[in-house]
DNA sequence: CATATAGTTCAAGACCGCGTGAACTGCACC
DNA sequence: GGTGCAGTTCACGCGGTCTTGAACTATATG
């Protein structure tokens, strides 16, 4: 987790194709970055985590924290924390340009995989907990006695419902994984001329 | 939306089977109610909406706003608003006991259907919006010109990815519906000896 | 009509998560 | 050692959401 060397295109070319890092995003970039932010927020992460990843992905070349700070209008501290989260999840990579002292960050293409993974864990743990609660309730209800059987049946039904939802959820994640996998192939080869290996 | 008459079991029986409405939930009830609250919150609704529905469902017989207020330790105003939401969504029903002046509220069994429905709408609208944003970004990028083609391709890939996610999502909702439908049958007949007919 | 109780509405406040910015650490270069 | 910059940490404040509680309306009862 110490970062890698960045051996991308020559530094001179960066100013020829696009506003280099004059501080303000191109409108189309802003829209796309915002879109990623919305998606990521929708899935329960921080909007800015998505914006940072989106920017890095769109640019294709590694950016410094300072550049990110300017482009997305975030604070120094904020960027630091966001980058740390993203790096820990393996969706960005810390790279060092030879004979330059600052770290740069590049987008991995694993964002989708990460999202499905985290969501999977979250939902699974959640549904499991619910089922545990419900059976605990049922146990207690039986223990105290005097609870009319039709109420016990209600508890049981809620539990089986939870089970079914759980199964549907797992199925979703699996198919979604499969469905997305195909796209990911094409997705990946456009990011950096290199592939993730975690 | 004016409510229906409640012609359930005789009023005398209510005090024989369980703590009638002494103000505090039985422990097993509390757990179950809380579980429903958690689920509902998980899906983006208010926790207390779930708790109210859960209580009504578990009790099986219609409760007054005052009873709900005491059992769940909520404020008068809060209960009023929660009930209004739930009623508007068709997951509870307002009933009137003959020759009694207060409204009572009974759980419908459509909670699951409502959740899937709302979630479906929400996600669908969301994903659609994302796709629109992305193609807008692409349009703008092409319009300004000078944007390197590999960046345009990135935008395209993000859009197709969104499409695939959308498809997976729809599939999930459909199968989940189907999967849950079976349970719903059993689920339903235990709530009230009556079916919704809105 | 007066009174009491059920029900609604809404401004004020509690609460919570996120980002900020300042203080701090670490490192390179002079 | 000192200066400057990259990067980290964290107490605080802002903005949002949810709940409360009090004022208000509606409705039944004598």
TrEMBL record, chains A, B:
The keyword Flavoprotein does not apply. It comes from the Bacteria. Residues 44-100 form the HTH marR-type domain. Residues 1-21 are annotated as: Disordered. Pfam families: MarR_2 (PF12802). Keywords: DNA-binding, Transcription, Transcription regulation. One of its GO terms (molecular function) is DNA-binding transcription factor activity. Belongs to the GbsR family. This is HTH-type transcriptional regulator. It comes from Corallococcus llansteffanensis.
């Amino acid at each position: 987790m110490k970062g890698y060397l960045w051996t991308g295109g020559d530094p001179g070319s960066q100013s020829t194709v696009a506003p280099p890092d004059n501080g303000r995003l191109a409108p189309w970039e802003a829209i796309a970055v915002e879109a990623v932010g919305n998606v990521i927020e929708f899935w329960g992460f921080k909007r800015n985590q998505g914006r940072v990843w989106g920017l890095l992905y769109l640019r294709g070349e590694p950016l410094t924290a300072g550049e990110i700070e300017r482009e997305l209008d975030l604070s120094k501290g904020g960027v630091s924390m966001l980058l740390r989260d993203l790096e820990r999840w393996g969706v960005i990579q810390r790279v060092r340009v030879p004979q330059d002292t600052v770290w740069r960050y590049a987008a991995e293409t694993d964002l989708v995989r990460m999202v499905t993974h985290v969501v999977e864990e979250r939902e699974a743990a959640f549904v499991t907990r619910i089922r545990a609660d419900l059976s605990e309730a049922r146990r207690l209800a039986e223990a105290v006695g005097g609870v009319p059987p039709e109420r016990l049946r209600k508890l049981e039904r809620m539990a089986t419902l939870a089970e079914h939802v759980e199964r549907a959820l797992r199925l979703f994640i699996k198919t979604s994984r499969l469905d997305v996998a195909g796209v990911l192939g094409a997705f990946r080869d456009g990011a950096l001329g290199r592939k993730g290996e975690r």
